[in-house]
């Protein structure tokens, strides 16, 4: 059970392709989620090879899987944006880059 006052980690809601907060998150059959445009672009490139894979775990799919919007994840990302944690994450990134 989550503790009161604990904050959500914005990095858990980031796309591993573009590294930003997820935009229109889609979930692939292995369970990983990506921005809609990121995974579509990734798979457009892989179309040439004829095998589609998850960029994170490398699980391969013979046919391009149908993707569904992850509604819960989309709502959580919107909540993060509303609470300003996105700005906090950007400040954290700048601090670590110095």
UniProtKB/TrEMBL annotation:
PANTHER family: B-BOX DOMAIN CONTAINING, E3 UBIQUITIN_ISG15 LIGASE TRIM25-RELATED. It comes from Salarias fasciatus (Jewelled blenny). Keywords: Metal-binding, Zinc, Zinc-finger. It comes from the Eukaryota. The keyword Repeat does not apply. Gene3D superfamilies: Zinc/RING finger domain, C3HC4 (zinc finger). The keyword Zinc applies. This is RING-type domain-containing protein. GO terms for molecular function: zinc ion binding. Residues 15-58 form the RING-type domain.
């Amino acid at each position: 059970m989550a503790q009161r006052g604990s904050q959500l980690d914005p990095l858990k809601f980031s796309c591993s392709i573009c590294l930003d907060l997820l935009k229109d998150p889609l979930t692939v059959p292995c369970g990983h989620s990506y921005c809609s445009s990121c995974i579509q672009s990734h798979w457009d490139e892989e179309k040439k090879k004829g095998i589609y894979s998850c960029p994170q775990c490398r699980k391969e799919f013979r046919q391009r899987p149908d993707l569904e919007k992850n509604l819960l994840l989309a709502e959580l990302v919107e909540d993060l944006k509303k609470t300003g944690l996105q700005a906090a994450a950007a400040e954290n990134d700048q601090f670590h880059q110095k």
